[in-house]
Design goal:
six-stranded antiparallel β-barrel; 2 helices; 172 residues; mainly beta
Length: 172
Amino acid sequence: MSTASETPQPVCPKCHCDFVKRSRRAGLIDHLISSFSIYPFRCQLCRYRFHRFQKGVTYKRIYEDRREYERLPVNLTTTFTIGTVRGKGLVMDISMAGCSLGTETRLGIGDILHIQLQLPNQANAVDVEAAILPGIHSNHARLEFLRFKSGDKERLQHFIRELISSGSSRKA
């Protein structure tokens, strides 16, 4: 039997990007069809979830990282607000679903932040109108993006596509 690393990487049927990640099985149907070597995947760029047949492939369950999206290393300055409190921070990694934020501002689990991400070579920041803080790990806030200002989700998607195509973000 082959392993997942020996099998060709699936391509997203929606955006044709090859930056996809095996997704967790969700529900009875996913569990049943996986017994026929049909596995769920999620595009890291357009967020589309799809299934692919992979005969003879076995996937080892990894409990440490259960994220649906691979985080890409970055170094972005950001400003944010929580109600009337304003803060500054540094984004260390990012995906279409969220980011890790380092800041001196005191944050609490469950806080909803309005974030402005300053992307390189762009005059206007990407405006994330709502991001929730589900947890804090190693003095970094984990944020999940909930809502973007019109057009800014596409700008972030373009930035992530550039990170992927540069190859600097791929892990060996």
